[in-house]
User: What shape does this take?
Amino acid sequence: MKFFLDTADIKEIREAQETGLLDGITTNPSHVAKSGRNFIELVKEICELVPGPVSAEVTAEGKDEMLRQGRFLADLAPNVVVKVPLTQEGIKAVKVFSEEGIKTNVTLCFSSVQALLAAKVGATYISPFVGRVDDIGSEGMKTIFEIRKIYDNYGFTTQILTASTRSALHIQQAALAGSDVSTMPMALFKKLVNNPLTDIGLKLFDTDWNKIPEEYRTY
Ligand code: G3P
Assistant: This one.
């Protein structure tokens, strides 16, 4: 499963890149607002920094303006993926983008039937939000399992990009469900390596190692 970072923060992107685990970036209007940066300059900078796919979202509501914005974004760098909301107009725009060879990430997906529509118009990625569904008392991860089944039933190649992840359990469950990608905030990306038993085990090994006479353990 590929790991994307859900951020528009350059410092976080650099830090995640050093781990060797980073495969791509997803941004959204909220992340861009938080960065305080010029949107286009920011997208260009992220695309230069990260060789993998970088999602940049259109903000228009109508198909024609979505197409104009998306084409503009796609021209910025070869690794731009145009992020489009899962609306009627968004679906129409994705159909055109697919015909033009422009990569898309269909966002704000909350059901497997919505994901089916995105695949039918050739979306590159579908982004079901799991955390926001959990937040309202439903089971967000169920959608990921359903989408995997539906896509496999019909041989759709749209990649499932599990989004709105909040915990290591989400990442584990997404991998078990066969999600192609998980995008996550930096705080979660950093947490994935942690396990208290690793820390306890390491401390014990260190203590035991120091019991060995120094001349026996120098190499
Ligand atoms: O970028 C889309 C998604 O990952 C947002 O997550 O935490 O705002 O629900 P969140």
